[in-house]
Design goal:
The complex is a heterodimer of chains A (about 220) and B (about 475).
Chain A lengths: L1 E5 L3 H13 L3 E5 L2 H10 L4 E5 L7 H10 L6 E5 L4 H9 L4 E4 L4 H15 L8 E4 L2 E4 L4 E4 L2 E3 L3 H12 L4 E2 L1 H8 L10 H13 L8 E4 L3 E4 L3
Parallel strand pairs in A: 1-2, 1-3, 3-4, 4-5
Antiparallel strand pairs in A: 6-7, 7-8, 8-9, 10-12, 11-12
Chain B lengths: L4 H53 L6 H13 L14 H4 L3 E6 L5 E6 L3 H9 L9 E3 L8 E7 L5 E7 L1 H52 L14 H50 L4 H31 L7 E5 H18 L3 E5 L5 E5 H18 L5 E9 L2 E8 L6 H5 L17 H11 L3 E6 L5 E8 L10
Parallel strand pairs in B: 7-9
Antiparallel strand pairs in B: 1-2, 1-5, 3-4, 4-5, 6-8, 9-10, 10-12, 11-12
Helix pairs in contact in B: 1-2, 1-5, 5-6, 6-7, 7-11, 8-9, 9-11
The chains are: A alpha/beta (about 220), B alpha+beta (about 475).
């Protein structure tokens, strides 16, 4: 997967390049709009990350220009501007997703995956998810671990399903709140942790090898091996 | 209508006009009445002299009475102020307005010409202490209007009296008064209409300005109030308002620039720091270092959250918070927030319940309402001690929706209660950043709603958030 990162802040650019390379992307970096245009014109990128505040031009203008020269790859916008207007404007002007600074790496990676999946041909909808000895029947809304049925509330099932779909990858609290509860909020209490704690009690409760891991300061991961 | 300024102005103007014209007409009436009186008196004095002359020079024989009566009769046909239309056709009735009386030197009635009874008239004249210098009004029994009487002393000691009924004089005067009153009434009505029309026209400009200003107050700071091309007081008001709006717009614009650059200047380093911490977290195995890095990230996230909420509160205070109103079911929203918070509450030994009578739709910004309710629940979670209960009540009153949250905890202390919606004030045991209720207040205001917080009589707090069912449409400023 080839990725073009357009970001003028050296610090941000450095750690993003490192993290994205570790995540398996082939990363090219442009520090300004002109370089980005040249790179995009000559290389077939799968995805682009564009910061809105570039030194030589507005990020949105750059995206428009890239579309004009035939770049079809999805674009993830990074911006320090948070208000709804900017968000809507960014998405209307050709951005495919929008992430406000500061952000969690896990969230950036998840959004990139979503954008790439959106562009890939859709496979048939799965009805069963399987992670190690944990199995989810999405039609009957039933979860079993090593053959034993887990007594989950509907909410817990949705949470576990989300973790399974992202097995082996980190999900943050705000990602869980957005995908499972449909809310973009940042509670300053441990509401999400309590849900995970309860779910863990049911999934990992029988002295089995723990599947749900907490990564402090980052989020949670369902181990796939 | 009755309370409009146009009505009031016209009313007072008409009142002043009415009294002014009444005064003028009273003076005019007096003047005309005096003039009529003077003309009658002049005629009377002239005629009585003629009659006296005739009476004196007519030989006192059998024909005397006849001749003098004849002359008196003739004179009575030239009565002044008598209108043609009012004149009866027959001769007999013609004379009822005039009488002629001659009294001998012995005081006995000598000659009587006129309607009615001679002695009665003589009695009235004698009883009225009549003077010969000038005519006077005398009331005679049996006649509704008094007579104007002039007299003359003859050489032989007898006296002649000529009386003229004031009836005609009065009729002329009353006719005049009716006309004047009609004229006066139409003048007053016309005056009222003109003043009312002018006042309304002028005040319509004021109303236009008010309407435009209230539109601006609610939504669009770019609009300006309309002003007429004339340079009168109203136009000056409009100019002043527009000038004020220019300054407000510039200030809001400035605030936007400041918050925008503040956000940018803080966000970039925050992103870099967070990114570096996250990448270094990956490569660390040492538990102590892991802990330090993880808690740094968490602190950083709290700082970011504070920054975001702080900017939102500032924007909402400046009426610049952008809303994206959609129709939401508050009942469903509260239920789903409760599924999120219930485990944390019960983990802490708290009970939470919702009282609602089914779906309740309002138009509001869903994201902001989510964050507002989360703030309220976070506050309860942080401040309550185990064993307490939180009751959430959703109700509807007219065009407003009320979300009421009550608990049976310790309540706010007095100091906190006084500054509840001010930023950075915390409850005594708060670990939060103290933006909770300021943010709740800001969101409610942005939706043209309100928040009230108080201590319940039985202990615990009560917070009432009132939201209108329809949020202001697309608040876009600056």
């Amino acid at each position: 997967m080839r990725l073009l990162l357009v970001e003028d802040e050296r610090d941000i650019q450095t750690f993003l390049e490192q993290a994205l390379t570790e995540a398996g992307y082939g990363v090219d970096v442009a520090l300004d709009g002109r370089t980005a245009e040249e790179l995009a014109a000559t290389n077939p990128y799968d995805i682009l990350i564009v910061d809105l505040g570039l030194p030589d031009q507005d990020g949105i203008d750059l995206i428009t220009r890239l579309h004009q020269i035939g770049v079809k790859a999805p674009v993830l916008i990074l911006s320090a501007r948070r208000s709804l207007d900017d968000r809507v404007r960014g998405l209307e002007q050709g951005g495919d997703d929008y992430l406000t600074k500061p952000f969690a790496l896990a969230e950036l990676l998840a959004r990139l995956r979503n954008l790439l999946k959106r562009n890939a041909p859709q496979g048939s909808e799965t009805t069963r998810l399987r992670v190690q000895d944990l199995e989810l029947d999405l039609l009957r809304r039933e979860a079993t671990r090593a053959g034993r049925v887990l007594q989950l509330t509907p909410q817990e099932f949705v949470l576990l399903e989300y973790l399974c779909r992202n097995a082996g990858r980190v999900v943050t609290r705000s990602m869980i709140l957005e995908k499972v509860w449909g809310m973009r909020i940042q509670p300053d209490t441990n509401v999400v942790d309590v849900h995970i704690y309860r779910l863990r009690g049911k999934v990992d409760g029988n002295g089995q090898q723990p599947l749900i891991r907490t990564l402090r300061g980052v989020g949670y991961v369902l181990k796939d091996r | 209508m009755m309370r409009s300024a146009a009505w009031r102005i016209s009313f007072w103007a008409a009142l002043a006009f009415t009294f002014g014209t009444i005064l003028i007409f009273v003076v005019l009436d007096r003047f005309v009445a005096n003039d009529i009186q003077r003309r009658s008196d002049a005629w009377l004095s002239g005629e009585v002299e003629v009659l006296g002359d005739v009476a004196e020079h007519t030989p006192n024989d059998a024909l005397y009475n006849r001749v003098v009566s004849e002359v008196a009769e003739l004179a009575s046909r030239e009565v002044p102020n008598r209108e043609i239309a009012a004149q009866p056709a027959d001769e007999t009735a013609e004379n009822d307005s005039v009488f002629f009386l001659q009294v001998g030197s012995d005081g006995a009635l000598k000659l009587w010409v006129g309607q009615g009874d001679g002695p009665t008239h003589l009695k009235a004249i004698v009883g009225s202490r009549f003077s010969f210098d000038r005519p006077a009004s005398i009331r005679v029994e049996g006649f509704s209007t008094p007579f104007r009487v002039a007299a003359m002393r003859l050489g032989d000691g007898s006296r002649v009296y000529l009386g003229l009924s004031e009836r005609d004089e009065r009729r002329v005067l009353s006719n005049l008064r009716v006309r004047i009153s009609l004229l006066w009434l139409s003048l007053v009505l016309l005056g009222f209409a003109i003043v009312f029309y002018t006042a309304r026209r002028t005040l319509k400009h004021v109303r236009d300005i008010t309407e435009a200003a209230s539109r601006i107050g609610q939504s669009d700071l770019k609009t300006r109030v309309p002003f007429a091309r004339t340079n009168d007081e109203i136009a000056q008001l409009a100019h002043t308002l527009n000038h004020m709006l220019d300054r407000i717009e510039a200030t809001v614009e400035q605030l936007h620039t400041i918050t925008g650059s503040l956000a940018h200047d803080l966000r970039s380093p925050l992103t870099a720091i967070r990114g570096k911490l996250e990448t270094s977290l990956e490569g660390t195995r040492d538990a102590k270092q892991l802990e330090a890095i993880a808690s740094s990230i968490e602190e950083l996230d709290r700082l970011t959250d504070f920054l975001n909420t702080s900017l939102d509160v500032a924007e909402a205070r400046a009426n610049a918070l952008r809303l994206k109103p959609v129709e939401i079911d508050l009942d469903e929203l509260l239920r789903s927030m409760m599924t999120l918070y219930e485990p944390s509450m019960s983990e802490k030994g708290l009970a939470i319940s919702l009282h609602s009578s089914g779906p309740l739709y309002i138009v509001a910004d869903e994201g902001l309402i989510h964050r507002m309710i989360a703030n309220l629940f976070d506050n309860e979670l942080k401040h309550l001690t185990p064993g307490c209960t939180v009751a959430v009540q959703l109700s509807q009153q007219d065009d407003a929706t009320e979300v009421r949250i009550e608990d049976d905890g310790a309540g706010f202390d007095q100091e906190t209660l006084a500054h509840l919606f001010v930023r950075r004030v915390r409850g005594r045991d708060s670990h939060g950043h103290g933006l909770g209720l300021a943010f709740v207040d800001a969101v409610a205001r942005a939706h043209h709603g309100s928040v009230q917080a108080s201590n319940r009589a039985g202990g615990g707090i009560r917070i009432e958030v009132v939201l209108p069912r329809q949020a202001p449409r697309d608040v876009v400023v600056g």
